[in-house]
Design goal:
mainly alpha, 0% strand
Length: 62
Amino acid sequence: MSVIVVLIGASLLVATGFLIAYLWAVKNGQYDDKYTPSVRILFDEEKKAEDRNKKSEISSKE
């Protein structure tokens, strides 16, 4: 029974450590992405253009 108490205490300690590390990373801007939103529209357009090309190839073969 005492082993369970020790394991629960250790797991709470580790979980608290991970929570503190996560909050520190968020506070210091580790998850801020300033590049991707500015080019997201370009990636979307490429995907749409590829889809249009595939559809035109399929319709030209038929």
